Write the structure tokens for this entry.
Amino acid sequence: MGFHKDEILDADDLPKCYTTVSTCFRREAGAAGKDTAGVYRIHQFDKVEQVVICKADEAESRAWHQKMIGFVETVLQRLELPYRLLQCCSGDLGPKNADMIDLECWMPGRYGGGEDSDGSREQTNRRPTGAYGETHSASRLYDYQCRRLNLRYRDHETGKPVFCHSLNNTVLACPRFLIPVMEMYQNEDGSITVPTALRPYMGGAERIG
């Protein structure tokens, strides 16, 4: 987004579509110790992020939102991972979001809603029952980011500059995404079967010992 700060783009140059690798740092404020074991919540992680800058048109913005979600669904389907889409309610949205849809993968090692009140699991002897965990998130931001960046395009009909709309989409965040991959493909002997879709990128390896 910062590439176009203070710019007035030509309407014919929209949409602008970008994919980037982003290093993120988070305090995970409010987690209160929940999910801190393992790699579900960590301070630093990398993710592949998609960004779209488009015209200030609600229909176009909604269409891009669905297309971006479709990219993630294609990844999950090719990896044959169980997942679900979660429509975030308005009370869970920050001031920047007009809409947000999370995609959650099934993680067999998670606890299905029976944690202690402080989020601790060490005091229980329960076995994990499995639960869905967020792995992706796609947001429509309308002109919130673009107003802050003074990012506009010149409308052909009026000749006046108009604030763009923007969207972002987490295609894959690592290492969190390794959780469903490793847990769903783990074998009884502890080895991990490499998903068929990943084998061409793993030198043809079929299993990790």
Summary: Residues 114-121 have pLDDT under 50 and may be disordered. The domain at 2-208 is CATH 3.30.930.10 (BirA Bifunctional Protein; domain 2).
